[in-house]
UniProtKB/TrEMBL annotation:
One of its GO terms (molecular function) is transferase activity. InterPro entries: Glutathione-S-Trfase_C-like, Glutathione-S-Trfase_C_sf, Glutathione_S-Trfase, Glutathione_S-Trfase_N, GST_C, Thioredoxin-like_sf. Belongs to the GST superfamily. It comes from Gonapodya prolifera (strain JEL478). Gene3D superfamilies: 1.20.1050.10, Glutaredoxin. This is Glutathione S-transferase domain-containing protein. Keywords: Transferase. Residues 87-208 form the GST C-terminal domain. Residues 1-82 form the GST N-terminal domain. It comes from the Eukaryota.
């Protein structure tokens, strides 16, 4: 049996598919049409009650959600891919960066992109305030992220899935090239990862 990836364009499935490809494991894909609210239907809610993509069905039928957790699982179960340090201080440092990106940067981008989700008010000024606050916080977060980048990749000379994860997040920023001009190490990482043939292909697939 193979993995099954439930995906949608402009979603966190981008990094999961990249890891599946780089790990060289067979997988099938099921497109979840967000525009037609397929993620809210009972069939998909049975897969992920949070009504979010990505979701990954493992060969034994277990369902995993949360892109960071999925990528970590795949890296651990396919260590030959060398997409994440698996022991010692290197793993501790990489895990810190992963949790930071997932809990801070990803969440703040969601606030910037979907501010209405983060306020009970329907007043346009309140929604705008959420968005303005998120934009300011992103600048602070990018400054912190810049300090994590060893160069040219996050952990040094070798590509890890953290680099693809960060590439995805940076690609969701408004005007990423303009923003990255202030953060040279992230700019190099973004440009380097963006030239990888697999990433070029996935950018088109995911409409990034």
């Amino acid at each position: 049996m193979s993995y099954t990836l439930y995906w949608a364009t402009s979603s966190g499935a981008f990094v999961v598919e990249a890891v599946l490809e780089l790990a060289g494991v067979p997988f099938d894909k099921v497109l979840v049409d967000l525009d037609n609210d397929e993620h809210t239907k009972d069939e998909f809610k049975g897969i992920n009650p949070m009504k979010q993509v990505p979701a990954l069905k493992l060969p034994d039928g277990t369902i995993m959600t949360e892109s960071a957790a999925i990528c970590l699982y795949l890296a651990e179960t396919h260590p030959e891919s060398k997409l994440f340090p698996l022991s010692g201080v290197a793993r501790a440092k990489a895990t810190r960066v992963l949790f930071y990106l997932a809990s801070n940067v990803y969440e703040t981008i969601l606030r910037l992109s979907y501010p209405g989700r983060y306020t009970a008010s329907s007043d346009a000024s309140d929604v705008k305030a959420v968005q303005t606050g998120a934009a300011a916080r992103l600048v602070d977060l990018m400054s912190v992220t810049e300090g994590f980048v060893v160069g040219p990749y996050l952990l040094g000379k070798e590509l890890s899935f953290l680099d693809i994860y960060l590439f995805m997040l940076l690609g969701w920023y408004p005007k990423p090239e303009e923003t990255l001009a202030k953060f040279p190490k992230q700019k190099v990482l973004f440009e380097t990862v963006g030239k990888i043939p697999l990433i070029v292909k996935l950018k088109e697939t995911y409409k990034m």
